[in-house]
Design brief:
With 610 residues, the chain is α/β, with parallel strands linked by helices. Helices cover 34% and strands 23% of the residues. Helix 7 (260-268) packs parallel to helix 13 (404-424) and helix 14 runs parallel beside helix 18.
């Protein structure tokens, strides 16, 4: 959520800043703004409520010039979405943009008010601008002023500060909210995500926790939380600069749904052979750690939590090891007991999810044997701070509603489950070959699932006037139903719930009527007959059923039940397979409802605040 872009250059940077913001629109925002200083120390600040394009049009018509500037897309936390609450915020000659939450902003606001500062916004960010302005009155440089100011901040922040009287530099600080610095030739840049800068550079440095950096056209100087000068590694990005283009697709989400066969191939490449999983591909220390592991603790949020819930069935049924899954925002705030030889696994698309990152840091203090992350973004905080990382290689995912990040997390988890069972001796060679064979077949099977697009698009018409939907599944397909429910409410704004089908009689049957669509995930497995009984419970109460069923399941359509017949797939990979038609259903329902598919209201792609 929120996005930051900054530049120090000899050329005019307005176009670079605005283009960077456009590339960060996927993160979610409600307003946008820029502040640019020219060589004569003239400051131009423009802020707009709404889309970045509105800001772009205004900047273009104003013919803004200047070689140093900062820009921001805001997702409201403190203060309503409005132009006055939009970033950058200004105090005297100081301009500031900020991602995160300053938890002690009220105390700082009181102190700064006593010092004579007048607040014009409702934001926590404005305290940073005033605080730096105050410190600069006695500090020898902007760098020192920012270093003094951030010592007084409590909470999470990625913040960039600009002084109109010194347009030769920007100062940036990072604590809990990611910042990357991009290196050019005679110019340097910074952003909250390297995607914003791929049109101007491919050389990046990631700041660590507590770092403060001074960025000029020719130099980047980094200091750690102790004020010591430090060197941070510069890496070369291999991301394609046009990875976030929609191409011929109507929406990013649609594109990303159809990228899943390729994404799954990329995730598995070099990690499985024709008949086995390569344990060393999981991590240098993976074989040693997995052999000692006696328990798995998964911590995640949102879609990643649903992936963990599916994996729990795999860890226990396939690898024969106990597994707990917990929402990160709950895990970090309860007293828990760490089991002996327990491996912590964090799941995150961005690697910057605030609650998950906090849970990782807490777990390090609680005696976990090791911490592993399954993540899509190299260089992210979770990747850097975990003992070892397994990259999903999903590629850039722009749509707020996660699709390919989810399925690549699942295939990654299945590889991990197989490696764990192999190292602990609970999976023999025959079983490993069976699992790997199912994984190899999956991309082509997903291609087949995508061929149901037109049928699912027609089915979506039935949801046009609905306000509620119920999703049902049993066993590992209950969390598949959870993910389907999450997708529908995220992008169509239809209230949706998921239930383990066996729980219907314990309350949810009271909701069933002709206005409540009930979507059922029905593979042909050991629980099929139980599921059929649950379906009859719905039919007996006048419910309208939509059943995504294995061709071998033996369902027949009638006036109360529509059947979408799916080809038979392996029980092992079926949870991944059945996720795809659920994604398509949500997508086409959202199209019919006319919602913003890629940037649904009130949501953000990367949740970097608590």
């Amino acid at each position: 959520m929120c996005g930051i872009v900054g530049a120090v250059a000899q050329r005019d940077v307005a176009e670079i800043l605005v283009e960077g913001l456009k590339r960060l629109e996927y993160r979610g925002y409600d307003s946008a703004g820029v502040a640019i200083v020219d060589s004569a120390s003239n400051l131009t600040r423009i802020r707009r409520l709404g889309k970045v394009q509105e800001l772009a049009d205004t900047v273009d018509s104003a013919h803004v010039v200047g070689g140093t500037g900062i820009a921001h897309t805001r997702w409201a936390t403190h203060g309503e979405p409005s132009e006055i609450n939009a970033h950058p915020h200004v105090s005297g000659d100081i301009s500031v943009v900020h991602n995160g939450i300053i938890e002690n902003h009220e105390q700082l606001r009181d102190t700064l008010t006593e010092r004579g500062y007048q607040f014009v916004s409702q934001t926590d960010t404005e305290v940073i601008a005033h605080l730096v302005e105050w410190e600069l009155r006695s500090a020898p440089s902007l760098l020192v002023a920012v270093q003094s100011a951030v010592k007084q901040l409590e909470g999470a922040y990625g913040t960039v500060v600009m002084d109109r009287n010194d347009p030769s530099r920007l100062v940036v600080a990072r604590s809990g909210s990611p910042i990357v610095i991009g290196f050019g030739v005679g110019e340097n840049f910074l952003a909250s995500d390297q995607l914003a800068l791929l049109n101007v550079t491919r050389r990046f440095m990631y700041l660590e926790e507590g770092d403060v950096a001074e960025v000029t056209r020719r130099d980047v100087t980094v200091f750690n939380s102790l004020g010591e000068h430090v060197e941070r590694k510069i890496t070369e990005s291999k991301l394609e600069h046009d990875a976030a283009d929609k191409g011929n697709y109507r929406h990013y989400m649609q594109k990303e749904v159809f990228e899943q066969p390729t994404a799954l191939i990329n995730t598995m490449e070099g990690r499985i052979t024709a008949d086995s999983v390569i344990t060393d591909a999981i991590g240098v220390k993976a074989a040693y750690i997995l052999a000692k592991t006696e328990h798995i603790q998964i911590v995640a949020c949102g879609t990643s939590y649903n992936a963990g819930m599916i994996a729990r069935y795999w860890f226990e049924a396939i690898a024969g090891i106990s597994c707990d899954v917990e929402i990160a925002s709950e895990f970090r705030y309860r007293k828990f007991v760490t089991r002996p030889n327990s491996l912590l696994i964090t799941l995150s698309q961005s690697g910057e999810t605030a609650d998950t990152l906090a849970a990782l840091r807490l777990a390090k203090e609680k005696g976990y044997m090791a911490a592993m992350t399954i993540c899509n973004v190299a260089g992210s905080s979770l990747v850097r701070e975990s003992d070892f990382a397994f990259m999903t290689r999903a590629g850039v995912e722009v749509g707020v509603a996660s699709t390919k990040a989810f399925t690549t997390q699942l295939i990654s988890l299945l590889m991990l489950v197989t490696a764990l069972g192999k190292e602990r001796g609970t999976i023999d060679k025959v079983r490993e070959q069976e699992i790997v064979s199912a994984m190899h077949a999956l991309p082509n099977q997903i291609e087949q699932a995508l061929s149901f697009e037109k049928e699912i698009e027609a089915l979506a018409e039935d949801f046009a006037d609905k306000h509620h939907t119920l999703f049902l599944g049993r066993g590992e397909f209950y969390p598949v139903a959870m993910e389907a429910s999450l997708k529908l409410k995220e992008i169509s704004y239809i209230h949706a719930e998921a239930y383990a089908a066996g729980e219907l009689k314990h309350g949810p049957l009271a909701l069933i009527d002709a206005d409540m669509p009930v979507v059922v995930v029905a593979p042909s497995n050991d629980l099929l007959e139980k599921l059929k009984s649950n379906i009859e419970e719905v039919r007996a109460r006048g419910g309208l059923l939509y059943v995504f069923a294995d061709e071998e399941a033996g369902f027949e359509a009638d006036d109360t039940m529509k059947i979408i017949t799916m080809p038979h797939v392996s029980d092992i990979t079926a949870p991944i397979y059945y996720t795809v038609p659920m994604q398509l259903l949500s997508y086409y329902v959202a199209l019919i409802k006319g919602t913003d598919v890629d940037q649904p209201r009130n949501l953000a792609k990367s949740v970097t605040v608590e």
